Amino acid sequence: MGSSSKKLHFTLLLGVVFMATLFSVEGAVIDPFNHGDQAIVQLGVISPLPRSCAFSETATLVKMEVTSCTSQPCLMNVSNTYEMSPTFIPGYSSNTTQYQLRFYYESKLYIFALISLTDSFIAGSQYKILRQIVIPSELGGKSGYFRVVLFDLSGRYHVSRCFDAMVGN
Question: Model's pTM, two decimal places?
Fold first, then answer.
C-alpha cells in the first residue's frame, strides 16, 4: 500500500468511526436558555415517577430530574435555583412545544414563565429539556405540588406530571 493509499484508508476509517459515534447518541438535550457555560448541577431522579395529572399524555415520560431531589416531597428553599428536567419520548412529532410550570398550594397558584421551545421533537426519539427556576420568596413555608406540562399549539399534551414539594424559608 502506498503512502497516499494509507492516508485515504485512515481518513475513511476515521470518518466511519465519527459517523458511528454521531449516530449512537441516544437523545437530545434541549436547553432553552443555553446554560452550556454553567457548572454541572447534580440532579436527582424522582422515584417513583411523578404522577400523571390534569391532561392525557401522548408521550412516554422516561424520568423527571430535579436538583437535589430523589423522592417526594422535594425539599426546596426560597431564592435557590433548581433545575426541573423531564426526559420523554414524544408519541408524535411537533415543532411548537411549550413548557409550562406551576406550583399549587393552599388553594392558590404560582405560575412560572411559559417557555416556547423552537426545536423540533420527532416521535420516537428521546429528549431531555433543561429548565432552571428560582423559588420566589412568596412560596416560603408552603407545601404543595408542581405541575410540569409540555404541550404544543395544536392542543396536544406530550407530558402532564405532578410532584409534591415543600418550600422552606
Answer: 0.76
